[in-house]
Write a structure and sequence with these properties.
Length: 634
């Protein structure tokens, strides 16, 4: 069963303050029943009084009340989601849990690659996801991207992938929209703080929770299981507790799409522009693709928390989390290339082409300059973990100290990428149709059987993110007029981020002469694109993923040389060390509260990048050198 994740969007009266009419009626009924029982037993000896059973009701309204309570007591602008009961909302991960909050935007990808069936990135107030800070219990968490284009190049950023963070971990999520001096630095647009459950917070000595679900994808027509469980134990003295959580969640994804991958201006020197000068600068679609994406995700991991309270003033805690996402996938994309036909192949569109608002919206060509991209990535995925120790000590009735230290690590990887490209023979004709899919055909050619080898590639890549941290805080309660308390503290972090692309293959000595991958007659699903409107066809061949892997691994088909095919142009390494101190005063009055403070941060940054020219030779991408840039910011 799953805990309810409900945003603070409604106001309710707490049951303990005012009895409802139903409660009064129930109380009268119980009193009447008790009086009747006593009358029947008047002659008997009075039995010892039994304890009254207490029934606690929790659910969606309880979650709302808890959310509102946290939001009302906050001294800054926050939104809160709490998890108070089990199995009401279908949230898959933490991003799903907070998407209903005002000012929170979610997207199912990191860059422009489109969605993959589950919320992956979160942004605040319409800004970039890289501008918000994602925290777990007040400390950073490192994650990794399974999609290769987010592991290096222009899509690499500071944002966190929520695909690794299941919603079962959540006790509450606090979205902080305004800055305070005690908040961890780094969140320009705000911070998302995921608060996990603690062993000694449970009411019962032994708690066992479980969830069994199934997820159905109507395109793939596959149903996959979802399991999660929790075991919490604490001793009779309520000073020692252990919580264990585990999850195993599978999802099958199929995505049908037509991709128009940008627009390119027609060059003045092209044959088309020479024949018709009015075409100079007219935009033409770069690629028009019929893309079939298929994937099976498996997210597995768990968490633990060991909490010890040796006395009423001291609390010690150690907790950790691990999540692995296996995300093998295959993408087949038939790409018409109008821009290449004009600017690269120097073709002239046949008479009858159409220009509208500076765009070549329809044209036909005698020879197709497009391709079929067949991509198979059987070992794509990501991992995330953290280990944290923390303590809280109440020195006096008014003075409290706390501290924490830990490490977090995340990696996204693609270790067996196979890329094979077919030619599509014949001509090509296209027409853009406004808000409905474009029409694309290949006169004289065939999309039902594989064409000759056009190119091959693939390789290995990964992105690693990790941080070590330590912090100490203190709070002194004043209780003097509007002066409620003062907080102070210090924090240290050592953060590194790197992108690695050790192998970027190309066709080997036999890549063009050997036959292509074995084709077993497989085609696109017959209902491909049926929900996207007209103009799409399913008459496209498709390789089996295992056949692509076998062809890519065959000797001579691809160039496996970790020196020659080391793509240093995609790599970098960043190290940031920060030291911070802060002081903050909390104010409170009749119907209002607030704070003011200052936080001083020093950041030392070392960035290592590769630049062309230099002593490192042997790569097909050229000689290069590593350059280190050192910066410090206060």
């Amino acid at each position: 069963m799953k805990r309810n994740l409900t945003p603070a969007t409604a106001v309710r009266h707490t049951p303990s303050r005012k009895p409802t009419p139903i409660a009064i009626a129930v109380a009268i009924m119980i009193s009447g029943a008790a009086a009747a029982a006593q009358a029947q037993q008047a002659a008997e000896a009075v039995a010892p009084a039994e304890p009254v059973a207490v029934v606690t009701v929790s659910g969606v309204r309880a979650s709302l009340a808890q959310s509102l309570k946290q939001k009302r007591n906050a001294d800054s602008v926050v939104e809160v989601v709490t998890a108070e009961d089990i199995g009401k909302m279908p949230d898959r991960n933490v991003a799903d849990a907070i998407q209903r909050l005002p000012g929170v935007n979610t997207q199912s990808s990191a860059g422009g690659e489109g969605g993959f069936g589950e919320n992956d990135r979160v942004s605040l107030r319409g800004t970039s996801p890289s501008l918000q800070q994602t925290l777990f219990n007040g400390h950073a968490i490192s994650t990794g991207d399974w999609f290769v284009l987010n592991q290096y190049g222009g899509n690499v950023g500071r944002s966190s992938s929520f695909s690794l963070l299941p919603s079962e971990l959540v006790s509450s999520v606090v979205v902080r929209k305004s800055a305070t001096a005690d908040l961890v630095e780094g969140g320009v647009s705000g911070a998302i703080d995921v608060i996990t459950r603690r062993p000694l917070e449970f009411k019962k000595q032994l708690t066992v929770e479980g969830s069994v679900q199934a997820v159905y994808n109507d395109l793939s027509k596959k149903t996959e299981p979802q399991f999660s469980g929790l075991l919490n134990w604490k001793n009779d003295a309520n000073n020692l507790g252990l919580m264990l959580q585990g999850f195993s969640q599978k999802t099958s994804v199929r995505r049908d799409g037509q991709e128009i991958l940008g627009y390119t201006p027609i060059q003045a020197g092209s044959a088309a522009a020479i024949k018709d000068p009015s075409l100079v600068g007219v935009k033409v679609p770069t690629f028009i693709g019929a893309s079939l994406f298929e994937q099976k995700k498996t997210r597995e991991g768990g968490a633990f928390d060991l909490e010890f309270k040796p006395n009423k003033d001291l609390t010690l805690d150690a907790n950790g989390f691990y999540s692995q996402l296996k995300a093998p996938h295959q993408n087949t994309n038939f790409l018409a290339a109008p821009a290449n036909s004009i600017n690269s192949a120097n073709q002239v569109p046949a008479p009858g082409y159409t220009v509208s608002n500076g765009t070549l919206v329809g044209a036909s060509f005698a020879q197709n300059s497009g391709e079929v991209d067949n991509i198979y990535r059987p070992d794509a995925g990501g991992e995330s973990f953290y280990i944290d120790v923390n303590a809280r000590y109440r020195a006096t009735a008014d003075l409290t100290f706390s501290g924490k230290a830990g490490r977090t690590h995340g990696v996204g990887y693609d270790r067996q990428d196979v890329y094979y490209q077919n030619n599509v023979n014949g001509g090509m004709k296209y027409a853009l149709n406004g808000m409905t899919p474009a029409s694309v055909s290949y006169p004289g050619g065939s999309t039902k059987v594989p064409g000759s080898t056009a190119w091959a590639g693939g390789g290995e890549s990964q992105s690693v993110d990790q941080e070590k941290y330590a912090q100490a805080d203190g709070e002194l309660r004043l209780g003097n007029g509007i002066w409620d308390s003062v907080k102070f503290g210090t924090r240290f972090t050592d953060h590194t981020r790197s992108a690695e692309h050790p192998l970027d293959t190309r066709p080997g000595p036999l890549g063009f002469s050997n036959p292509g991958p074995a084709w077993n007659g497989q085609m696109y699903p017959s209902n491909f694109g049926s929900n996207l409107g007209g103009n799409l066809t399913a008459d496209y061949f498709k390789y089996d993923g295992a056949a692509l892997a076998a062809w890519g691994a065959a000797p001579g088909n691809r160039l496996f040389d970790y020196v020659r095919r080391h793509n240093w142009t995609d790599e970098f390494k960043l190290q940031e060390k920060t030291d911070a101190v802060y002081g903050m005063a909390n104010l409170v009055g009749e119907g209002w509260s607030g704070n003011f403070g200052v936080r001083a941060v020093r950041t030392q940054q070392n960035t290592t990048v590769n630049q062309s020219g230099g002593p490192i030779v042997g790569s097909d991408f050229g000689a290069y050198k590593q350059v280190v840039y050192e910066r410090s910011y206060n």
